[in-house]
Amino acid sequence: MTGEVPPARLDDLVDDLRSPERSTVVGIGPLTNIARVLTEWDGASGRIDRIVVMGGALAFGTMVDTNFAVDPRAARVVVRFGIPITIVPLDTTRTTCLTRDRWRAIVRRAAMKGPTAIATASAFDAWVSPWLSYSEATRPVDGMWVHDLVALVALAHPELVDSSQHRVDVRDDGKLVECPDGVPVDIVEAVDNEAMISLWERTVFDVGVAAPPS
């Protein structure tokens, strides 16, 4: 859920949250839509167990990550709202890496798995390869960071990440900062990159190279 969307899309999200089971919401873009749900729908706090956010940067000086910079007010609303929250900051996602060689190996293995895996790999390659080229030319990394994947892994496979509680707030410019009177949140501080990439490969392409984590 990223940026402003037509009201119908927001209504769709609210409809999902009205299901009998309580939900976990994952935000991997600007938090505009999630903030709108929290502030405009009275039932939000009773239907959402936790919010997992990929965004914010505690380190890197004055750098503000894109997701919080696009809508700082929304980021502050979500962080301060009172629902338990897990934040996956740029500090952690920048330790991840999908190299070009690793991606080529995934595509090669997919080619031996049959039509479905081939089609899936081809669809992914249409954006992974260009992004690898862009990332290698503009980022200090041999390959590409896989920011969003960390948020999903933190939710589905918490054994692959290390987290601890911090008190934080969001400044007017979107900068995530620690402060003694801030909101207590869980910050993902580390992720097992190799296990995460292998899990993604197995899950999406069914061509994994290692056993699932126990």
Could you name the key traits of this structure?
alpha/beta; about 45% helix; 10 helices; disordered C terminus; Inosine-uridine Nucleoside N-ribohydrolase, Chain A; Inosine/uridine_hydrolase_dom; about 210 residues; IUNH; hydrolase; globular; about 20% strand; purine nucleosidase activity; six-stranded mixed β-sheet
Overall mean confidence score, pLDDT: 90
* DSSP summary: helix tally: 10
Strand content: 15-25%
Q: Give the SSE string.
A: HEHHEHHEHHHHEEEH
Radius of gyration: 18 Å
CATH superfamily of the largest domain: Ribonucleoside hydrolase-like
N-to-C span: 31 Å
Number of strands: 6
What general outline do the C-alpha atoms trace?
Answer: globular
CATH class of the largest domain: Alpha Beta
Number of domains: 2
Largest sheet: 6 strands, mixed
The low-confidence parts are 208-214
**CATH fold assignment of the largest domain:** Inosine-uridine Nucleoside N-ribohydrolase, Chain A
What is the strand arrangement across the widest sheet? 1-2-3-6-4-5
Question: What helical percentage do the residues reach?
Answer: 40-55%
Instruction: Give the class from helix and strand content and strand pairing.
Output: alpha/beta
